[in-house]
């Protein structure tokens, strides 16, 4: 049993203001004891137990355990082009050292002989980067493209950068990527890393995916909703494209080549996938390149943020060079830990290396996310604080140590009543698959270590894989996409069937938004909505804005609402100052037009100020610049879609707020509530009694009618992002008239 030595000065007591899982409660910062004394921490040890070597046979390739880092840092940030030195034979040598290399010919042969292949290989064996290149180099893809799907954007972009380097080309040439709101592809592109959602979207324009000869579904164990949609569709596409010549019909007329499908993962229920694809061939790739030693704590660590803090400094003070990757459930914990680490790092003695902290979560703009890939300055140790977006597929150069809190956030559908349920993010324990993937991030360039902040017994008790998203999330958006493909959710063959209740809820929502008629058929409005990469309510609002002549305003508002973090910074330390700043933007009608005021002010500042000036302004105004930057990016993409659809995105209602509120209301019609005599609000389309969230500018107001962006579920059901409208606006909406008539 190994025991990590005491970490001086870091208390073992739970964080003074430990945050509880909040599902959207206002951000709560943890005050840091600034006068915290350095003291002997011998009683504060986090004892970790060396449990087992990671499975697999470490290859004695000279990159083993205690060798100093030998390899050059290779990965280029997403979107950058490879350098000419990449022709460097060392990269080709590294490719040959990967465990998968010895099986190269056999893998190509198996894929050639089978329509569907399920390929299982340990993390780091080389599946994601090598298999597409083998297929391309062998000529198996013919003149078609090879798509490799990823559940997350950052994996798709960074893999494209790596494989482009290996192919000695620029990203967007032979090797490209396509993710929501960003693409680097050209007519030369033959290998395309793509998020599963983008490939589902491609189905809308090309239902047989005719440009592709191979589709590789990577990290299939995650069972995202999009991956499941794809898996179901690939089966039907193969029935057309791979049918015998005389039965091919339409596809044969178009002379489409057969489609090869490869399902890949390190941790997959291989038999289940194989069975779904009529007993598809399963191939196992043995071995990993570098060993990862895994430790578990001897006791559970309820305060996982504090445990992560202590473990990090134990590594930092006691262990040799190598960067650290810490997995946390969400942005809130990341920001809290970032502050704590910074505080203690500032107090380190001079002879201890400095700490460079890099946060990594979905809401960060891509430019900030790609910072994790840049080389660590000499004399420093990089500490990456990440959510599970860094869990699969990516290689972060320099990472030798992983700290796994064992927690993640999971989207889950909270069913209240058909048509009024909503997805909420809950913090929960991870699965064994996730734990294996997280540990795998440590053994990419050399041997590594993974410190699990949970016991070995907890690991054994974890479910092997997560419940598929199709069984736990809202289906509205996917159902709309399927309708555009002429498919019915209810009739499609899925690996796991969705709950009937969730299907009914999605049908009802789409009907109330006007996307479906009362025979469940797609309406022209529904088709128009599906063209926008937006949640259906926001797509509906955007379509409404075209008629109401306020597309410019609605685009600005929904771009902020589609960003992955909140616009306003909540701070307990300077609550009054934050409230004062917010008051400057306040619009009487509530939060939506307040958001618009912020965007307009930000645009003015952006036009005259430098990047630093902009940041400064955001800080003074207690605004989240990351949210605004992401929103501007989203808005630019949406404007492009409008231009392609010949929609005038400049159309503005000027100072007339009525049309803007009416357009938003069309999209958020299910999210409306009327004031009751007792001061509470009752949903118009559902049974819930809701309160206005304290973060809203209408929090202390009593308005006859409101609409809101979402419900959050804490001690009460809170409506967040609230505006008030005259009751007559609601009564004017056709679906509401229909309902009252009924
Ligand atoms: N961006 C990169 N920079 C440096 N090395 C890389 C990069 N991407 C991949 N590699 C090297 O290639 C190896 C194989 O990576 P690859 O993603 O193909 O493995 P994998 O089997 O798909 O693993 P996983 O299941 O974790 O995605 C890594 O372990 C690493 O050594």
UniProtKB/TrEMBL annotation:
Protein's name according to its UniProt entry: RNA helicase
UniProt catalytic activity: ATP + H2O = ADP + phosphate + H(+)
Keyword ATP-binding among record annotations: yes
Biased composition (Basic residues): 15-33, 50-73
Bias type Low complexity, positions: 75-89
Keyword Hydrolase: yes
BP-aspect Gene Ontology terms: positive regulation of transcription by RNA polymerase I
Keywords associated with the record: ATP-binding, Helicase, Hydrolase, Nucleotide-binding
Molecular function (Gene Ontology), one example: ATP hydrolysis activity
Record SUPFAM superfamilies: P-loop containing nucleoside triphosphate hydrolases
Domain Helicase ATP-binding: 108-286
Taxonomic placement: Eukaryota, Fungi, Dikarya, Basidiomycota, Agaricomycotina
UniProt xrefs under Pfam families: AAA_22, HA2_C, Helicase_C, OB_NTP_bind, WHD_HA2
EC number: 3.6.4.13
């Amino acid at each position: 049993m190994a025991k990590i030595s005491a970490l001086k000065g870091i208390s073992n007591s739970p964080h003074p203001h430990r945050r509880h899982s909040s599902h959207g409660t206002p951000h709560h910062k943890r005050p840091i004891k600034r006068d915290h004394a350095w003291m002997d921490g011998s009683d504060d040890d986090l004892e970790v137990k060396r449990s087992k070597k990671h499975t697999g046979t470490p290859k004695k390739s000279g990159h083993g355990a205690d060798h100093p880092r030998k390899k050059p840092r290779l990965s280029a940030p997403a979107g950058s082009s490879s350098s000419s030195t990449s022709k460097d034979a060392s990269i080709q040598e590294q490719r040959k050292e990967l465990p998968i290399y010895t099986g190269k010919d056999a893998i190509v042969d198996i894929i050639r002989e089978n329509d569907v292949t399920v390929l299982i290989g340990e993390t780091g064996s080389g599946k994601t980067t090598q298999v597409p290149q083998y297929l391309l180099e062998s000529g198996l893809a013919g003149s078609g493209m090879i798509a490799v799907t990823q559940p997350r954007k950052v994996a798709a972009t960074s893999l494209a950068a790596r494989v482009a380097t290996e192919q000695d080309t620029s990203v967007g040439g032979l090797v490209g990527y396509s993710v929501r709101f960003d693409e680097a592809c050209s007519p030369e592109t033959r290998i395309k890393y793509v998020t599963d959602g983008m490939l589902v979207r491609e189905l809308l324009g090309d239902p047989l995916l005719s440009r592709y000869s191979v589709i590789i579904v990577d990290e299939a164990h995650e069972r995202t909703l999009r991956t499941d949609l794809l898996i179901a569709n690939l089966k039907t596409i193969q029935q057309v494209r791979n049918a015998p010549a005389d039965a091919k019909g339409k596809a044969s007329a178009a002379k489409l080549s057969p489609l090869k499908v490869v399902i890949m993962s390190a941790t997959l229920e291989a038999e289940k996938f194989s069975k779904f694809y009529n007993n598809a061939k399963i191939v196992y790739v043995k071995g990993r390149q570098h060993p990862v030693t895994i430790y578990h704590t001897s006791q559970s660590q309820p305060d996982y943020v504090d445990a992560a803090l202590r473990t990090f400094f134990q590594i930092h003070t006691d262990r040799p060079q190598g960067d650290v990757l810490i997995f946390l459930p969400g942005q809130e914990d990341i920001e809290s830990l970032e502050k704590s680490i910074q505080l203690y790092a500032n107090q380190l003695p001079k002879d201890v290396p400095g700490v460079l902290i890099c946060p990594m979560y979905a809401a960060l703009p891509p430019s900030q996310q790609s910072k994790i890939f840049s080389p660590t300055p000499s004399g420093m140790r990089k500490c990456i604080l990440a959510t599970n977006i860094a869990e699969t597929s990516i290689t972060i150069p320099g990472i030798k140590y992983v700290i796994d809190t064992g927690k993640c956030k999971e989207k889950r559908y909270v069913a209240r009543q058909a048509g009024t349920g909503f997805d909420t993010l809950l913090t929960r324990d991870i699965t064994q698959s996730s734990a294996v993937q997280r540990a795998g991030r440590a053994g990419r360039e050399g041997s590594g270590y993974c410190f699990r902040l949970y016991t070995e017994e907890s690991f054994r008790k974890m479910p092997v894989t997560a419940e598929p998203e199709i069984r736990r999330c809202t289906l509205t958006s996917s159902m709309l996409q399927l309708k555009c493909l002429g498919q019915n959710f209810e009739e499609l063959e899925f690996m796991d069937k969705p709950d009937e209740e969730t299907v009914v809820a999605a049908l009802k929502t789409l009907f109330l938004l006007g996307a479906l008629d009362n025979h469940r058929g797609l309406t022209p409005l529904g088709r128009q909505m599906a063209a926008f990469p937006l949640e259906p309510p926001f797509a509906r609002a955007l379509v409404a804005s075209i008629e109401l002549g306020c597309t410019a305003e609605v685009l600005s508002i929904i771009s902020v609402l589609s960003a992955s973090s909140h616009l306003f910074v909540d701070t307990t330390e300077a609550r009054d100052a934050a409230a004062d700043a917010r008051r400057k933007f306040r619009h009487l009608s509530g939060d939506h037009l307040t958001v618009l005021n912020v965007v307009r002010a930000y645009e003015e500042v952006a036009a005259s100020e430098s990047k630093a000036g902009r940041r400064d302004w955001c800080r003074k105004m207690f605004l989240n610049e990351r949210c605004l930057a992401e929103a501007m990016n989203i808005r630019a993409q949406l404007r492009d879609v409008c231009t392609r659809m010949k929609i005038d995105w400049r159309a503005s209602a000027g100072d007339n707020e009525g049309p803007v509120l009416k357009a938003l209301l069309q999209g958020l019609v299910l999210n409306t509530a009327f004031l009751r005599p007792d001061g509470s609000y009752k949903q118009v389309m559902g049974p819930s009694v809701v309160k206005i969230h304290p973060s809203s500018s209408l929090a202390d107001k009593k308005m006859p009618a409101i609409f809101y962006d979402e419900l959050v579920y804490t001690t009460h059901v809170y409506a967040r992002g609230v505006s008030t409208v005259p009751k007559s606006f609601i009564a004017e909406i056709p679906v509401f008239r229909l309902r009252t008539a009924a």
